[in-house]
Amino acid sequence: MSNTKTLIIGTLLVVTLAMCIGYSAFATQLNINGTAEVTGEWNVKIINIEAQNVSDGCDYGTPQFTDTSATFDAKLMKPGDSITYVITIQNAGTIDATLNNITCTPDENGSPAIIYTNTEPASSLKAGDQTTFSVNVIYDSKSTEVPSIKTKTITGTIEYVQEQ
Fold this sequence. Notes:
Oligomer: single chain
Order of helices and strands: HEEEEEEEEE
Number of strands: 9
Largest sheet: 4 strands, antiparallel
Strand order of the largest sheet: 1-4-8-6
Structural class: alpha+beta
Distance between the termini: 78 Å
Helix content: 10-25%
Strand content: 35-45%
Shape: rod-shaped
């Protein structure tokens, strides 16, 4: 009986060894390597601001801008005077943009005789495209006397996001 057990154990060991060698002969290890790179560029920016439709005698100042802000200083003389500032926005990147939000809020404590209106820029700005946004500053034509508060500031934000 003991020789039979030894023979069975020996046979099982030989079969297991043969299976291991057979598996090794037919097994292949595959290696996969890869690299991903982001090549898109986000670059929506202001490229110009200019004064247009300036009423006679008004001073439109020297409008200034950076990539992300525009500043102007309008001086209006009499009721009905107005100045329009046209701000040019460009998508100089490679990623298309969508207008997400726009706010233009005049200072509540400023002169009620000064009225601001604005247009909206394009809702979609493809890579390489430009759009304009206008801010119109008006000395209210219904004003009958010189206001005691003579200034009014506007704060605006134009927010573009990546197009989905």
